[in-house]
Amino acid sequence: MASKGSLFAYNLRAKKKIVPELARTLPLPVNDKAQTEPLQIDAVFTGFSVDVTDSESIRLLCLNGGFGQGMLSRAFPACLTATRELVRKRKRNTNVEPTQDTVNEPLCLFLEEAFFLMHTLNILRVKDLFGKSIDVRAAFERFRKVKQNFLACYSAYLYLKSKNWVIKSGIKFGGDFVIYVKGPQFYHASYIEGKQIDSHTVDGLDFQGFNRIAETTAKDVLFLEVHYPSNLDLSDAGACLEQLKDIRVAELFTKHHNYLAARNQS
């Protein structure tokens, strides 16, 4: 995938405390050295997200690439943090015990990262709610029905992943993604990412809203311009998958200008 620009993080804000159980990470999921078979993770497409329920698979995805988010938690599922939460509550002399439902909390993958695990890494096996297997092309077609601009979002996701960012859903901040250095257990998010497709520019009101949210949450705004090849037939799923490498992504940064500080310096 062609690209231009240089994405960097200059405003890193480290977390004050890092949970020991979440500190040992790798960039991508890898198989155990003792296992000779290829890594395969089972998941279920619910119609809106892709859920993983096996605790070992959840641990592997969360700690190696920062994939997914707990269905009931703000970040990491209960199978990774239940022990620590239990110790904390016992220190407070509370009688609350983690239930079986919270310990078995599923991991929700948003569509782009689920397709990345299927299409690029080839480690995710997805089935529908009726147990029928979904291959890569069928998943691509289904995801596009759920999210009309899925191709542009996935192209932006691939670009950010190639820069070794840890990517989370940005819906909470009004963007497509929020991106982290190393992972959310180490640093706060550096950027809120939005995208522009070909000649479609961001509306002025949306641009102002992006900047307001970014300033309030101590983040920066990053726009990714996604440019499709002129001969790409967007209605042909096979052609879209074959020409992913020809889609160009460019970076566009915004910069705040402090007029009062500039006037005082002059």
From TrEMBL:
Q: Which Pfam families match?
A: tRNA_int_endo
User: Which ranges carry the tRNA intron endonuclease catalytic domain?
Assistant: 151-226
Q: Which GO annotations describe the biological process of this protein?
A: tRNA-type intron splice site recognition and cleavage
* GO CC field: cytoplasm; tRNA-intron endonuclease complex
Per its UniProt record, what InterPro entries does this chain match? Answer: tRNA_endonuc-like_dom_sf (IPR011856), tRNA_intron_Endo_cat-like_sf (IPR036167), tRNA_intron_Endonuc_cat-like (IPR006677), tRNA_splic (IPR006676)
Its Enzyme Commission number(s) read 4.6.1.16
Question: Which GO MF terms are attached to this record?
Answer: nucleic acid binding; tRNA-intron lyase activity
List the catalytic activities from the record. pretRNA = a 3'-half-tRNA molecule with a 5'-OH end + a 5'-half-tRNA molecule with a 2',3'-cyclic phosphate end + an intron with a 2',3'-cyclic phosphate and a 5'-hydroxyl terminus
* UniProt similarity note: Belongs to the tRNA-intron endonuclease family.
Q: What is this protein called?
A: tRNA-intron lyase
